[in-house]
Amino acid sequence: MIYFTSDTHFADPRILRIDRRPFPDMASHDVTLIRYWNEVVGLEDDIWHLGDFMSSRGGDCDQLLSMLNGRKHLIIGNNDPQTTTEARGWTSVQHYHEMTLDDQLLVLCHYPFRTWNKMGKKSLNLHGHSHGRLKPLPRQYDVGVDAQGLRPVSLETLLSVKPPQ
User: Fold this and answer.
1) Contacts of 81 (CB under 8 A, 6+ apart)
2) For the chain, first and last CA: distance in Å?
3) What is the spatial distance between Cα 21 and Cα 15, in angstroms, rounded to a whole number?
4) pLDDT in tens, 136-163
5) Measuring CA to CA, which of 83, 109, 128, 151 is 20 to 30 A from 138?
6) CA distances to 5, 8, 40, 75 from 109, in Å
7) Cα Rg of the chain (Å, integer)
8) Which domains does the chain have, with CATH numbers?
């Protein structure tokens, strides 16, 4: 199975203030997000993290990655430091990626696009960055934890929700 997520911001206390996530402290935030991730993603699954994984003050990125299920792919976000992008625990690291899943072209980037490759041919744009605050275009989905109940999400789940208008 393939899953998508974004904007976990592990070990970044700003996220509790900025996004008003329902946690008293970063320790409970991080433990809960790790638990939710592992409840959804299996050891043999692929997960695409669309940026803003963890703070540079969060310690060893590879140690955190080893606690998370799945083969992990990073699409670099604006808050991903070199300690994150160079961690060995990623299967792949890039700024942008296109993939076909279930005969559906997906355009993956941290940032939401106004227009994207093959948009007129029903491709989908999966993104993070906006923390659930941006009104999406048709066939555009925010996969960030703030927009997805703090959990990774499958394409099937995204498409089962009423499409954005």
Assistant:
1) 55, 56
2) 27
3) 7
4) 889 999 999 999 999 999 999 999 976 5
5) 151
6) 11, 15, 22, 6
7) 15
8) 2-160 (3.60.21.10)
